[in-house]
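Contributing new records

If you add data, match the layout below exactly. Sequence lines come first and carry their own label; structure lines follow with theirs. Keep one chain per record. Anything else will be rejected by the validation script.
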Amino acid sequence: MKRAYGILLRLYPRDYRAMFATEMSSAFEKASAERRQGRSVYARFALAELMALTMGAGAEWIAKLTTDSSVRGRSLPDRLLMRPPGVSWDAHYAGAFPSVPEEVSQAQERTELLVKRIIHAISQHDFTGARRYSDEERQARASLRSLRQKYQIGDTGGD
């Protein structure tokens, strides 16, 4: 029975198994030992556990496949995306984030600041200020677009 449980446990997503497989197996072994009073009692227990395990695996796959990868159903980390212990951040992510010229970075920050100011002005019912910030933001986005063209940086969707 322990072997069948171990095989069915492999139906769960890898990140879920990494977090919970040991605990689930030990809980099953403990509950299994408590239910060895009779064949029919143990058979019902085993059938219920194996069915629950199968249904749980299906539910976890549905959660994993239908949620954003940053959420992963229960906010479980995806170990394939995690930085290994002992490896520096710079070494692990080298090349993952291309460097952006300072001029472009400042233009992006200016645009983001103006959007925040627009939101704040609207929340304070300062519609004249919101209009002014909106005009400035439109100019800042045009400037940002021209800088991206100058440095041949693709549109990141933030503009």
